[in-house]
Amino acid sequence: MSIFRVKTTECRVGVVGLYNSGKTVLLTSLVNHLQDHDGDRFALGGRDTKLRKFVTLSPDDDWEAFPYAASRDALVHGGRWPGKTRDRSQFACRFERSDWRFSDCLLKLYDLPGERVADAAMLGRDFAGWSDHVHAQIAADAATRGLHAPFLDALGRPDVAEPDLLRAYKVGLANLILNFKPQVSPSAFLLDAKGQPARPDAPEVLADARFSGLGPGAEFAPLPAAVRAARPDLAAVFAPRYEEYVERLVRPAIQALKSCTALVVMVDVTMLLAGGVGMYDDTRLIVRDLLDVLSPGEHPVFGPLARGLSTLLLPHQLRPGWITRLAFAAPKLDLVHPSDRDRMLLLARRMVERYADSRDGLKFEFFNLASVVSTRPLPLENGRRFLTGVPLREADGKKVPPGPEQRFGVSGLPDDWPADWRPGEYTFPDVYPRMPPRKDYPPEQVNLDRLAAFVID
Ligand SMILES: Nc1nc2c(ncn2[C@@H]2O[C@H](COP(=O)(O)OP(=O)(O)OP(=O)(O)O)[C@@H](O)[C@H]2O)c(=O)[nH]1
Ligand SMILES: [Mg+2]
User: Fold this and answer.
1) Which of 59, 158, 236, 445 is the most exposed place for a label (fewest CB within 10 A)?
2) What is the spatial distance between Cα 225 and Cα 231, in angstroms, rounded to a whole number?
3) Which domains does the chain have, with CATH numbers?
4) What pTM value is reported for the model?
5) How many Å lie between the centroid of ligand 2 and the Cα of residue 31?
6) Sheet holding 376-377: strands in order across?
7) For a substitution probing ligand 1, which of 72, 266, 332, 367 has the most ligand atoms within 8 Å of its CB?
8) Helices first, then strands: H and E counts in the chain
């Protein structure tokens, strides 16, 4: 640190969103652009802002290191996207910014498997509170009620045995995911505590193979108040298993997010349009629950004054942290035609803005962005949209090896979310990443620099 840089500003940025929404790709591209910074290609603060003395640090105790090198290597050398995230991880680094004269920046970035966000509502709720919350959501949504019908039937049987009840709940969880509804909690059903993901299969097969909890003998299912009263034996078995699950899988990750200074929430408009109205409905609830639990905005007790004072007076390790900046990111901008890019931003706003709007002391912004631009647009043809890129899958969804660039069609974006739409009605085919082979040359991005300038503040 130079002698004039008398303090360190610590920025902790959590990135959350459904599985496959682009969190790890975003973080990989961001770290690459910070490490090998070029103001002309990544305007952090302004084109003249320079970054220097970038060093990677070890993650905090209890955190795995974010697999930056492996993710970047997969992109550059393997021509592949990084693998699915199986555990929570942190990337820590320190650098100087030419536009911060008296402070250097200690940046910590957090990545989570997307499945875990469906468990956010568990934080701060005991087993009864979580059960009531889940049953209120089941009751409020006809599609979810239908998919959980066997479980609701089982709950109606006064003498139902524990294994039958658990199996019925697991069939419901499998039905949800097979119908593109991501509200699957406990999320270990989809991604277990060891990071093993569920493979697509029939609901009964998934119910037999997977666990609704930490493992065999540690499973639980939500019980409505009436069943808890009628069957205290079941509630007494499930409650401690639930508590252990929250301690092991939920609290460490969600608590770290709570003490972040900024949060990035991915709203993958392409995936929501492709997934149908059920995916949209569930994702909206997941974002709402997540923001309720993390309660971004000014601290209710300390308030803005104390935050300002603590920044001035306390060493960075001791400063209280809470989220004051919220960035909603609509990723994969390169998978929609340029004529639709403003619509992508508008759709993200219409879906989740209300959850940020009502919070005092919170700055929020929306960004439509591409972390790794991997397509090129073609001119509109009678209103039809075409891009070029290297397709990742055949029409039947099977992965294919990388081949030559091809022209392919993508759906146009609506002006507003439709009242109803089916899975597959909109399509935005996945492509292979387009990465410059030069190791220190970061990928082409759109608006990732604007998002970074907003959250690293
Ligand atoms: N074209 C394009 N595709 C992207 C971009 N970012 C992500 N993707 C696609 O989205 C997929 C998922 O991205 P990840 O970053 O792994 O998603 P994630 O949110 O970390 O998912 P989990 O680890 O399962 O929670 C990638 O394999 C790509 O197919 C982008 O900027 N452009
Ligand atoms: Mg990931």
Assistant:
1) 158
2) 10
3) 7-112+260-374+439-455 (3.40.50.300), 122-251 (no CATH)
4) 0.94
5) 14
6) 376-377, 385-389, 406-410
7) 332
8) 15, 11
